[in-house]
Amino acid sequence: MMRERRQIVELWERGEAEALVTLVRVEGSSYRRTGARLLVAANGDYAGSISGGCLEAEVVRKAKWLVREGATIQRYSTLFDDTAEIPYGLGCGGTVNLLLEPAGTPEFERLMEGMRSSLRGETLFVETGLPTAGKALYRIIQSVKTAFPPRVSSDCPSDSGNAFCETLEPPQRLFVFGAGDDARPVVRMASLLGWSVIVVDARPQWARAERFPEAERVLVSPVTDDLRIDSRDAVAVMTHSYEQDRAWLAAVLPHSPRYLGLLGARHRSALLVSEAAALLGWTLERVCAGIFAPVGLDLGGDGAEAIALSIVAEIQACREGKLGASRRMAPETVMALIAKEGASRYVQTQCAL
To answer: Which stretches make up the XdhC- CoxI domain (predicted)?
Structure first.
């Protein structure tokens, strides 16, 4: 949805918007979740989607006519019915309520400005009072300061019985430490989801903007705490330099990002985990709890693209609260791998601290 939000804001900024469509209620199954949006332009162009493609053409065709007297709620069945004149859902299996509102109203402009602010890093709570007989649409937008607000909530403070409430979060930020060739598909896939990607590497011959056109920033930087990583961010450490990986782990772990993945073989990761623990004065349990290693879901496959898919998929599952079985190493696994690989006396000594 984040990529669609960017596209919707871009269309609005062109000054061609005619109507906004928001999915506000689902009964049964639906291809999209509540909060999905579609912005229709005067020339018939549109950005976003509110179904798997079965409703868009019909809604775009009728949007201008449907909002001629103001905001309205339209109900569409997505159950397959071969006797119906227009089988909208083609078997999607549910019913959806769509809020259609004309562009140019104060309520519309307020929401568009809020969506633009969210793309710039602000978190906003939006309460939209749905139009009914005798009641016009209203919209309240407030800044949110909590770390992880609910994305969609039925707890609307003003009119919980007839309002749609949601939280507009900023784009997921992903820091990719390492600018090698295998980082490029990670950046591409993350950008397709609308994430803001920052690539960092100490090697200027690799950390070049032209190698990562989809990245928001490409930085040539040594290990530093100045990147302001926070608890919402995701981090993938994949420099292929043992010393850089160790330094970045020690620098990032105290910031407690929501996801911190370490690329590399299990025995290498075990050594890095143990040395990062020693550098920070942390226990192995604490470090292991903060790191995903081996990085990525176990999807199978080989090559940079398959690894990138597993990394981005694990981050997505983590941020959505859908993460099931994980390959993360336990402290006893770390110690076993170190012993098996014959770690140096320095490492063994530090692990015993």
So the answer is: 11-76
How far is it, in rounded angstroms, from Cα 177 to Cα 163?
A: 43
User: Which residue(s) pair with 168 in the sheet?
Assistant: 124
Q: How far is CA 201 from CA 21, 179, 260, 263, 283, in A?
A: 42, 6, 16, 15, 28
Q: Where do the domains of the chain lie?
A: 2-168, 173-351
- Give the whole-angstrom CA distance, residue 22 versus residue 272: 47
Sheet holding 94-102, edge to edge: 46-48, 37-41, 17-28, 94-102, 72-77
Neighbour count for residue 258 (Cβ, 10 Å): 17
Please give the Cα distance from 270 to 285 (Å, whole number).
12
Q: What is the pLDDT of residue 322?
A: 85
Q: How many Å apart are CA 160 and CA 154, to the nearest integer?
A: 7
- Close Cβ partners of 226 (under 8 Å, ≥ 6 residues apart): none
Q: Supply the pTM of this predicted model.
A: 0.82
| Inter-residue contact 296 to 307 (CB < 8 Å) | yes
CA 47 vs. chain centroid, Å, equals 19
Retrieve residue 334's tokens.
């770390």
Mean pLDDT of the chain: 87
Cα-to-chain-centroid distance, residue 205: 30
Residue 350, class by beta-carbon neighbours within 10 Å (0-12 exposed, 13-18 middle, 19+ buried)?
A: middle
4-13, 199-208, 328-337: least confident range: 328-337
Contact criterion met (CB below 8 Å) for 280 and 291:
no
List 196's β-bridge partners, or say none.
173
CA distances from 152 to 27, 165, 322 (A): 16, 6, 16
Q: How many CB atoms lie within 10 A of CB 89?
A: 25
> What is the CATH T-level fold of the domain 173-351, as seen in this structure?
Rossmann fold (3.40.50)
Q: What is the mean pLDDT of residues 14-37?
A: 92
Q: What is the pLDDT of residue 150?
A: 53
Strand 196-201 and strand 173-177: the pairing is parallel
